[in-house]
Specification:
Diaminopimelate Epimerase, Chain A, domain 1; 4 strands; 2 domains; alpha/beta
């Protein structure tokens, strides 16, 4: 999928504007990253194929007198068919365990948080809103200056709403609402002060 088909220029402008409006009321810094897929998960179809190839011959071994060569051929065919079918992208995502997706999303979100310097703001008030489209998951990561005063559970409402909008194909709508919600929370705990400056670009990155 081409980047411009994921987030249009108009959507980017909406997101940047939403960030600017949210940050106008707080000393916090908000940054947004959208990833089309966090992992290729290529090892998952292979694992399922190995399991299927291990199980498939058992009925033939214990319940029939099929020659060993035929059983071996069935085993190999089972492995190949499962590996190929489960490697088709839409199918592959269905067989990836939920906890594997969760950890992949969290790992990439953390990497992006650090890569874009959200841990380097003067008051440690950087916040990353991260969306994984293929996995249909989202993460909000707040730096230590925020995490000491805002519990991670506080972000769950924004995360749930964002995921629902993304699942419905309304990526920009979900992002702008999530940005506004995060901005309101930051404004309560970290209201904007004289001399506050914009340390992180008001931007949206698509991976």
């Amino acid at each position: 999928m081409a980047v411009h088909l994921v987030v249009s220029p108009a959507d980017r402008a909406r997101v940047r504007q939403a960030i600017a409006e949210a940050e106008a009321k707080t000393g916090g810094e908000i940054f947004v990253v959208v990833a089309r897929e966090c992992e290729d998960y290529r090892f998952i179809p292979i694992l399922w194929a190995v399991l299927a190839a291990f199980i498939a011959p058992l009925p033939l071994i214990y319940l029939t007198h099929v020659p060993a060569l035929a059983i071996w051929l069935v085993q190999m065919a089972t492995f190949v068919v499962f590996a190929v079918v489960l490697s088709v992208p839409p199918v592959k995502l269905l067989v990836v365990p939920r906890h594997v997706k969760r950890e992949a999303v969290r790992a990439l979100a953390t990497q992006q948080f650090l890569a874009h310097g959200l841990h380097t703001t003067e008051a440690r008030t950087g916040v990353l809103i991260f969306v994984a489209l293929a996995e249909r998951r989202a993460e909000i990561i707040a730096d230590s200056g925020i995490a000491t005063r805002v519990d991670q559970k506080t972000w769950q409402g924004a995360i749930d709403g964002l995921v629902a909008e993304v699942a419905a194909g309304r990526i920009a709508d979900g992002l702008t609402v999530a940005i506004a919600a995060v901005g309101q929370t930051l404004a309560r705990h970290f209201p904007r002060k004289a001399g506050d400056r914009n340390e992180i670009p008001d931007d949206l990155i698509v991976l």
